[in-house]
């Protein structure tokens, strides 16, 4: 795979795992993408259950050989667990230098090569495995491949880890207090109707002065001093059906006001020990995960080379602008294609091509009219969205004249002076289209008419032959 393919794969995985829907389809599609991209024979996710067995959850296989459906947690020895938890991702290929631990791991999965990412709790106890392996021998994977997997697999580990925690919560009610007091998860329980606090664990109580500050009081009295009733955002209405019976776990994110920490909160209704309906609220500190999620969202919506928003964000932003446009508002979509860009790559190399794209991104985004409105559509294509009551066709004509004048001057790169031009297609909203797709198509057609005429010019949608 080329570097661009790695970045595209990372972006595809980031898109699949973005958001808060922790479903098996996203995991299966991610396994399939990774297997296809790196020629793995198998990809599998194993999760531990309460009976101390690892069970096969999602899997992708490229032949008819059956995967192990279940194996005991005890099959992973202390030495093997220590080996796996020392690294985020482990790479093992069968050879004469294998340690006994590595040989046993290869034998466990009947594989000639393995890539394993453990899913662990705060005590580095393994409760899940993401495994990719081959049955045929192969050379050790290149460093670039390992580097890509070392970024990609932790995304999948975090995604599956949060999903597993949600499952764990529903399975652990019988021993809730003991488990959560020793895993660092914040939890409290209150009467569903009176909101009197029935239980709070140590980690939840400590920032508020200890468990004595909770018991016998209303939840809002402790969490939001000065408040006189239940919180407006309390999710209790989602937790029971019309007959007052518990329904499902409800998940939401909350930022603690006095220190800014973020928590993923899980709420559920259940029968308390005395038979009354209770509301259990548990939360895990996801301040670090929020930063990771922001990174995933960035990778899904921004081009890694130029740091400009990508086509996905272009389409979404264009749809939003159209939805919010007034009846009298005009909008323009400008499509820029760089003339002769292939010659730059052929004559000066791809590094020079990348350097030029970065320079073009800075040039476009440095124009006041295009600031926060320029996107990299892909390859050597850039797109701008300009709108507003004060924007006129004359504004756009002046802008394109300025841009074309700049392109008649050389671009100074490390490899030397490079000359290239740009073909510009312009679509007008609403005359040339009322959807993002229609405007992009009209601007693209206009740009190609300039190309066919020799490039280095501009064509508006109404000028199409």
Automatic annotation (TrEMBL):
Pfam families to which the protein is assigned, alphabetical: GGDEF (PF00990)
Show the InterPro entries listed in the entry.
Biofilm_reg_signaling, GGDEF_dom, Nucleotide_cyclase, PAS-like_dom_sf, Rev_trsase/Diguanyl_cyclase
Q: What name has this protein been given in UniProt?
A: GGDEF domain-containing protein
Q: Which SUPFAM superfamilies match?
A: Nucleotide cyclase, PYP-like sensor domain (PAS domain)
This protein's species is Blautia hominis
Return the PANTHER family for the record.
Answer: BIOFILM ARCHITECTURE MAINTENANCE PROTEIN MBAA (PTHR44757:SF2), DIGUANYLATE CYCLASE DGCP (PTHR44757)
Q: The GGDEF domain covers which part of the protein?
A: 329-463
